[in-house]
Amino acid sequence: MERERELVGNGADPLIGMKALVVEDNELNLEIVTEVLRERGLVVTSAENGQIAVDLFSSSPPGTFDVILMDMHMPVMGGVEAAKRIRAMEHLDAQTIPILALTANDFEEDIRQTREAGMNDHLTKPFDMEKIFGALAVYAGTDKNK
Q1: 0.85 cut: is pTM over it?
Q2: The Cα angle at residue 25 between residues 123 and 57, in degrees rounded to 5
Q3: φ and ψ at 120, to 5 degrees?
Q4: Which of 1, 75, 79, 127 lies in the 20 to 30 Å Cα band around 102?
Q5: With contact defined as beta carbons under 8 Å apart, do 140 and 8 qualify?
Q6: φ, ψ for residue 87 (rounded to 5)?
Q7: DSSP string spanning 11-42?
Q8: At residue 3, does pLDDT exceed 70?
Q9: Dist. CA 113–CA 101, nearest whole Å
Q10: Residue 122: which H helix or E strand, with range?
Q11: How does pLDDT run across 58-105, given as a tens digit for each residue?
Q12: Which residues on adjacent β-strands are paired with residue 69?
């Protein structure tokens, strides 16, 4: 996979081998996003709510994930709270990992909340996979720890 990531400069797809944590409580949405991302070459780990995502991220070694796609409205813990907890961690990647909000709400207040929680982008549902791929490409191949 790392070799595939090195090919980015040679015109290869920069998303191949990207490691994504997808956090989504709707089983169908999670299945669709996971499958489409895997077809594109991403390595996907899924979580059904923000608490599971926080636990997975905190217990993972640095570099385990390249990006987090975070639903906003979930039981147990929503996306805003999960993002805040991730950003507050001592984890080496906590301040730099891109966190992209996935939400049906596209109001200014929602965008403000995601930014204040430390999220890097705000993507709306229903999913437009080309927009998601475009947002992921912005963060692909970057060395977060420099």
Answers
A1: yes
A2: 80
A3: -90, -25
A4: 1
A5: yes
A6: -65, -25
A7: T--TTTT-EEEEE-S-HHHHHHHHHHHHHHT-
A8: no
A9: 10
A10: strand 121-124
A11: 999 999 999 999 999 999 999 999 999 999 999 999 999 999 999 887
A12: 22, 100
